[in-house]
Amino acid sequence: MMRHLLAVIAFGLVLAFGAAACEKGPMQRTGEKVDRATGQDKLIGTGPLEQAGRNVDRAVKDLKKVD
Question: What is the tens place of the pLDDT at every residue in 7-55?
Fold first, then answer.
């Protein structure tokens, strides 16, 4: 019984961390919407504006860490 409980807790933690890692920043979400509107969105992977948005989000995150 204890093993099952620990397995369920471990599975829940894996899902929680996975969901947090998939979070998109505001610029990446905007880029994704623009890619869809212009027809440049890809079925697998990301479109060019979504990638640019991701890069902007990462740069902002890095600048916030420096302060």
Answer: 777 776 655 555 455 688 888 888 888 888 888 877 777 889 999 999 9
How much is the pLDDT for 42?
77
Q: Are 57 and 28 in contact (CB under 8 A)?
A: yes
Sequence spans of domains, the chain: 24-67
DSSP 23-44: PPPHHHHHHHHHHHHHT---SS
- C-alpha 57/C-alpha 53 separation (Å) is 6
Structure token pair of residue 22: 């998939």
For residues 41 and 32, the answer to whether their CB atoms sit within 8 Å is yes
Label residue 50 exposed, middle or buried (CB < 10 Å: 0-12, 13-18, 19+): buried
